[in-house]
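TetR family transcriptional regulator
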Amino acid sequence: MERALTAKGTATRQRIVEGAALLIRADGVPNVGLDDIRAATATSKSQLFHYFPAGKADLMLAVAKFEAEQVIAEQLPHLADLTSWRKWQAWRRRVIQIYDAQRQRCPLSALTAQLGAGDPATREIHANLLDRWQGYLVAGVQALKDSGEADPGVDPLVAATSILTAVTGGAGMLQATDRISYLQIALTDAIDNLRRPVPATRRKSA
């Protein structure tokens, strides 16, 4: 159970977490020690252990939570406003841009590997992230249905799950191969499956 902090204490803790995240993004988890983080954030040893009693393990978990938040934050405002095909395409381009720039340097994946993918706290971070992400996508699919732009037979939860799986699966293959095409193809196809079918009479006339 996390201890209650004053507003000043919360700000100090967040400053340490964000400073550690910047170092890890630049140098990688194995190359960043507590002394590096203390120096970069102007934090004393006693102060660091006040906020993170278990030392690096506590701090890395806090950084993982921060990076999970960043996964969503980097997609905003697009992710929160998937109300038209144009906006869905803008979100798709943003996701591909993020992962194309990131390639094999995903800070959340690196932290997960360090903490242990099977650790309950790590699984909880991932589950919370995916649940929030899926929620935005469900709302977006429902918005397209409500406007008549999506296939009326589409199940928002099923479609959102398929789209999210395309992103995470494509990102995983990008990390393994350094090829962005997996993500581009999978995400484009998953979104295109939402489209309202063209009536047979229109296809014939075309």
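thats it. The longest helix spans residues 120-147. The chain is about 70% helix and 0% strand. bye
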